[in-house]
Amino acid sequence: MKQMNYSPGLEGVVAGETAVACVDQGKLLYRGYAIGDLAERATFEEVAHLLVYGDLPNSEQLRRVQERLLEYRKLHELVVACLRRIPAAVPMMDVLRTGISMAGHFDPIVGDTLPDLQLRALWLSAQSAAIVATRYSVLNGQEPIAPRPDLSHAAQILYQAQGQEPDALSARLLDLTLILYAEHEFNASTFTARVICSTLSDMVSAVVGGIGALKGSLHGGANEKAMEMLLQFRTADEASQWVRETLMKKEKVMGFGHRVYKHGDHRAHILERELRKLAELKNAGEWMAIYDAIKDPMVNEKRIYPNVDYPCGLTYYLLGLPIDLYTPLFVCARMVGWCAHYIEQATDNRLYRPLSRYTGPVERKVWPIGER
Ligand SMILES: CC(C)(COP(=O)(O)OP(=O)(O)OC[C@H]1O[C@@H](n2cnc3c(N)ncnc32)[C@H](O)[C@@H]1OP(=O)(O)O)[C@@H](O)C(=O)NCCC(=O)NCCS
Predict the structure, then answer these.
(1) Mutate which of 177, 230, 247, 258 for ligand 1 pocket (most atoms within 8 A of beta carbon)
(2) Domain assignment of residue 358, yes or no
(3) 230 and 195 co-located in one domain
(4) What b/e readout covers 191-227, taking b as 16+ CB neighbours within 10 angstroms?
């Protein structure tokens, strides 16, 4: 057979063009803005506008995005009924995947022009937040809580899920994680969404595919796995011993390593700085000692750096969020990134249809059944 170029996992392969985001020499930019600047000076709503409409909003544009995100939080009654009836043991990511698919049947935006697609992106973003919050409150035996017009998108998620207005620090930290998670060029779930779009399928199908890809523990599922890992230990010594044994066995440590960043993930630095402040405020020094006991040998001895999921797991934990909400919150953030890529792909489309290298038997004869 003819030999063809092959890169397992498409490592190093340029699979398309994008103006949405790039990682340039380890620096992440959303449409030209450095992630550090956005984290410091913008809110999730501004970043959502940036990704979906191409630039940061002025005050009038921001007001409109905020209004849309509020209005689009309303779930159709059949979606709420579905969220009540899915068995309690079903993981939140599966519920969210079903919820978005179900909500798609009641999509209030008609058409597929650019403005329609941009509005649908905001609608999907708001619906994902409402689905997570509603499912969480019904699981806790509470009635779904109506959104409050005065709250930010992040504060609203916490308010609707927990039934009380979050403190400013919790709202700001959730907002920060939403900004950091919103977009990351051709990662696995975004690529999935683009492949689906490339067949001329619809935006809802593309993001449902994205949710399926994000759920895996090598991708977004790592924030939950990283926290489950930390919860095994009562002391830093236990963690330290465990990480050494794990590395000896050549097993993966969740929340570390990255296909693109080989010298550290800037998002992890940004979040870790805030996590340390949060831990101090919450008197959670022992958790930080466990966190460092894993991180130090990974970085100093193995040169494998934490990715954003490592500090995110502990941040969400210290904010009092249940573990199976961590990856769904990642979805709430990444929804705008997926949709921005969907729009870009749809605007200049070519079907994704790569080749494979065949490793099966050479051609063989089909013998009659009695002779096999
Ligand atoms: C993200 C990830 C899949 C990227 O993987 P990749 O680019 O395919 O890199 P590889 O898995 O081939 O790793 C390269 C080497 O680093 C090691 N490595 C990478 N991540 C590691 C981790 N988290 N723990 C321990 N070793 C790791 C691999 O074992 C491999 O070592 P080897 O060359 O001795 O075999 C990988 O780092 C990983 O599984 N991380 C844990 C899951 C995670 O946190 N995912 C979220 C990503 S944002």
Answers:
(1) 258
(2) no
(3) no
(4) bbbbbbbbeeebbbbbbbbbbebbbebebbbbbbbbb
Question: In the prediction, which pLDDT does 4 show?
Answer: 74
Total domains present in the chain: 2
Mean confidence (pLDDT) of the chain: 96
One domain for residues 210 and 236: no
Distances (CA, A) of 126 to 28, 69, 147, 331, 334: 25, 5, 11, 11, 12
pLDDT band at 1 (very low <50, low <70, confident <90, very high): low
pLDDT at position 5 is: 86
Task: Let me know if residue 137 belongs to a domain.
Answer: yes
203 and 120 Cβ atoms separated by less than 8 Å: yes
- The reply to whether 280 and 189 lie within a common domain is no
* 370 is a domain residue: no
| 305 and 158 co-located in one domain | no
Query: What percent of the chain has a predicted confidence (pLDDT) above 90?
Result: 97
Same domain? For 87 and 233 the reply is: no
Q: Which domain holds residue 84?
A: 16-217+324-347
pTM as predicted: 0.96
Mutate to test the pocket of ligand 1, among 7, 183, 256, 294 (most ligand atoms within 8 A of CB): 256
**Closest C-alpha to ligand 1, atom 41:** 254
Tokens of 155: 């504060």
Q: Sheet containing 33-34: give its strands across.
A: 21-24, 27-30, 33-34
Residues with CB under 6 A from ligand 1: 9, 218-219, 222, 252-259, 304, 307, 309
pLDDT in tens, 290-342: 999 999 999 999 999 999 999 999 999 999 999 999 999 999 999 999 999 99
Q: Express each pLDDT in 200-229 by its tens digit.
A: 999 999 999 999 999 999 999 999 999 999
**By the 8 A CB rule, do 271 and 216 touch?**
no
